[in-house]
Amino acid sequence: MKVAITSTSQQLADPMDMHFGRARFFLLVDTETGRFTAHDNTPNLQARQGAGIQSAQVVARLGAQTVITGSVGPKAFRALQEAGVQIALIAEACTGEEALRRFQEGKLPVLDAPNSEGHWV
Amino acid sequence: MSAKLPTIAIASGKGGTGKTTVAVHLAALLVERGLPVHYLDCDVEEPNGHLFLKPVLDTAQPATLLNPVIDEERCTSCGRCAEVCEFKAIAMLKKPLLFAELCHGCGACALVCPVAAIREEPREIGAIESGHAGPIRFIHARLNVGEPMAPPLIRQLKARRDPAAIALLDAPPGVSCPAVTTARDTDAVVLVADPTPFGLHDLTLAVEALRPMGMPLGVVVNRAVPDDDRVQTYCREQAIPILAELPDDRRVAETYARGRLLFDDLPEWRGRIARLWDNLLTLPGLEVSP
Amino acid sequence: MKELVIISGKGGTGKTSLTASFAALAGNMVLADCDVDAADLHLLLAPDIQYRADFISGCEAIIREADCRGCGRCAELCRFDAIASVRRASNGVRVHRVDPIACEGCGVCVWNCPHQAIDFPDCHCGEWFISATRHGPMVHARLAPGSDNSGKLVSLVREEARKLAKQQNREWVLVDGPPGTGCPVIAAVTGAARVLVVTEPTVAGAHDLARILQLANHFKIPATVCVNKWDLHPDMTEQMEAAAREAGATPIGRVRYDSAITAAQRRGLSAIEAGAGPLAGDIHAVWRNWQAVAAGNSGSANP
Q1: ipTM given for this complex
Q2: List of domains in chain C
Q3: Quick check: pTM over 0.95?
Q4: Which of C190, C220, C221 sits opposite A120 (nearest CB)?
């Protein structure tokens, strides 16, 4: 299974980015092999509008079945739902590794409604 | 009446300078002179003209914007609609997904769809109400709360202008899209400014925004005080005529607060507004033959 | 970091003057002038610009008249009435031209021109700045007059101010918001923990207060209300505060009608800096109440 983690860097050992729409990187982890690839989200970061929607498109295209993040705005939530990507919610900032471990232990709740107001409209 | 009756916008860069005060009193003056007046309140975010003119509003219509509707049967999920949307209102996931609040109603997606799976349907963004305040024809619109885009509503409002009357357009504050959408295709713009640093600064921005549009401009100095002539000096430098200097007076603020017209309580204001109008008619291209 | 977003619905209620006074009182803060349409805060803060950047947003259509064959397909498709038929200056042949003021930047004409005669360059819509002021850093902007996209510029200014406050460990971000209820206001309030509505006791102020509180409720943002120039119409002030409570908002004080505020503005100062006096006392009280509400000591303003 493929899991996307919102991250501040290209390394799993570094702190997560807690915001989905404006995450700096997505780390795409293959949970079977433990291997991961880093995907720069800077272009969407700079979008003043619709950043969350664009980020959702990126994650969906990467083939992730789940995204692990701290907050998701209403539009990104709708887009992720539509794409069939599950959202695993991490409440407190931690590293990507830690988030992945807790996800695999089944300790992360699934987000069933947007939990941030979003930045624009 | 031979010449086409003029359309005049009353605008200001800064809010709260007295646009609505000038507009409603001009309307009141013109009907006293027996002229036909159509008052269009183009501040669709915060319309206030009705509070002073107290019109009887007998017609209400929804204002709409065309939004795409995607026929899922026909859609092949090619993603062309999402690619072509400059406003990112369509996201391409398993199938295209519309975010209506981002849609500007341009129609690009429907045009580009290779299998004609997109049709457009109106979505309500506000309401337009019209009626009469005595002999004044009155129209205003309200943007639904939470709806971001004022310009389409302003365009729809302006399209209802009565050509058989002098149109007075009460513009929204600022110098961006709602204000310039109001001022576009008018015969003159009256800029209301107060003689303060904020007032002068925002007046200069408004002049910068409006000058390239080509219509004549005139300035009303509102809340004028004897010891501050910064607005007058600027207008002289820019060769923009001053149409009136309306004195600062707490009684005006109190009368305004109560939603009353000044002519009843402070009759000297009738003469002031009359001079404003007479000066306005000296602007190039403005003519009202009685 | 706590954010105070100051909005008004109606323009000219004294929002910017109060923001400048709060900046003087707050101490450890970052200012964000989000009234990018008609930014005035800099006139009181005398910012020293440290950083400037272009604000580029969207694209605008420009017809290359030399390549235009005057077929009119663009004008037919444009929903914004932005394309007119004109005579080419060189030879009087009919061609089309885009009115940049009316152009929405949708690209419909660009993609559908049968002769590919329309360019679609990025739109330079203004500039934004980070400055030093006597009260702390300030993020501000200048939207190109007549430009579109003010909501996006508001988002940018607000975000940069928040970023700066985090980096520099500042206690407050004070946001001077735009008037109205449309896109720039929505951009100024979305995601805010709480807003302060500065209003005035006039029929227009009351009407616009109701709308702006509806907007706050629509986005589920708790609102506080300050009635400026309250003694212009004391009964109306009472009514407006009652209506605000009814709408779930918390009145946090009144500021009197006083020409000292304009006098201070003429000297390039906030009312607080211009001297004590009863006006400054009123503003002090509003700031104290705001801090109490923001700290959660005065109960929730959430409906």
Answers
A1: 0.92
A2: 2-57+126-294 (3.40.50.300), 61-120 (3.30.70.20)
A3: no
A4: C190
